[in-house]
Amino acid sequence: MSEAAQAGESAEVKAKGGRSAQLKHTGLRPGWTTGACATAATTAAYTALLTGDFPDPVTITLPKGQTPAFALAAEELGASHAMAGIVKDAGDDPDVTHGALVRSTVRRLHAGAGVVFRAGPGVGTVTRPGLPLDVGEPAVNPVPRQMMRDHVTEVAARAGTTPDVEITLSVDHGEEIARSTWNPRLGILGGLSILGTTGIVVPYSCSAWIDSIRRGVDVARAAGRTHVAGCTGSTSEKTVVAEYGLPEDALLDMGDFAGAVLKYVRRHPVDRLTICGGFAKLSKLAAGHLDLHSARSQVDKGFLARLARRGGASEELAARVADANTGLAALQLCAAAGVPLGDLVAETARDEALGVLRGAPVMVDVICIDRAGTVVGRSALK
């Protein structure tokens, strides 16, 4: 079994249902996020900078406790810097960054400087608002940043020093690869983003994943569960567990396949279905899309503007929403004006879900979250 597969298999996998069991059922091999690769490269580079030796392989700890090891593909040690590189393995996911060389160059800074991130060649820079990073920042998302901070802090503690470093991340040919992503449209210029919330890439084959969703519903029903939750990812899964205390086998990892959950539950009803996911993804469901993948449906800012008007937005605000860079930016504009766009999206998504259920005896509620897992909108149960 590969390291990626071992990382995906935990005590949770041994359960008969839930997110981990669904992944195991697909037979697809998980991979690593760019954030995990960047963290491994940073850990190796900083270790070499302090000790003179590169750990190879280098082991890191992911947010859920897995401890994968990564082989180094590149290394360089200078008087004031060290660089290490990791080749990204996306597993069986058709990820455009599969095989990309992610490099981290670490340099010492003066005491008290802390950890500073820079975008090197092939890593983008944020140029427009509406993302979870400020304009001008390198496109290194919050969870990978925290992972790298945690690991350099551990390395520094072992060496008896403080983690005052500059971390410059780069991806070979990243600017070219980024042209095949949404980064240019989002105003992330110059390359790719360093992403990931769990460190693990969950692979998607439409047929395999939809089959795993059906298996998840069957397991939940066999266990006597009357309330199940369709979640778009691990963050939304944590949210519904915190909200409702649902057990592992009541959790359905629907990913982008909202329609697959709804159509199967229509034929195999449960008393209650909660749908939980990111605001932008669920705005697509609200607009009538059943496949939420970015390659097959997009956030419709004009639709969000119409919802905002329904919630009391002025024409000027509605126009700003329609012109927003991202769904998150539209949400923030409305929140500042006291317009409950999150609730409106959740309510509309619930009604769309009920329409797909076609009168099946299933009550539905919807929860919208932001990237941090904060609830930004919810519907009543209906």
Short précis:
By secondary structure, the chain is α/β, with parallel strands linked by helices.
Structural commentary:
The structure is a single chain. By secondary structure, the chain is α/β, with parallel strands linked by helices. It is built from 14 helices and 18 strands. β17 (363-369) and β18 form a beta hairpin. α7 (206-222) crosses α9 (258-267) and α10 (279-286) packs across α14 (341-357). Mean pLDDT is 89; it is low at 1-15.
Please write out the topology.
Elements: H1 3-8, H2 19-26, E1 31-32, H3 34-51, E2 58-59, E3 69-70, E4 74-77, E5 81-87, E6 101-108, E7 115-119, E8 122-123, E9 125-126, H4 142-159, E10 165-171, H5 174-178, H6 183-186, E11 188-189, E12 191-192, E13 200-201, H7 206-222, E14 227-231, H8 234-244, E15 251-253, H9 258-267, E16 272-278, H10 279-286, H11 301-310, H12 315-322, H13 327-336, H14 341-357, E17 363-369, E18 375-378
Parallel strand pairs: 7-10, 8-12, 14-15, 14-16, 16-17
Antiparallel strand pairs: 1-13, 2-3, 4-5, 5-6, 6-10, 9-11, 17-18
Q: Roughly how much helix do the residues carry, as a percent range?
A: 25-40%
Shape: globular
Question: Can you count the beta strands?
Answer: 18
- State the secondary-structure class: alpha/beta
Estimate what percentage of residues fall within beta strands: 15-25%
The largest β sheet comes out as: 5 strands, mixed
The strand order across the widest sheet is 4-5-6-10-7
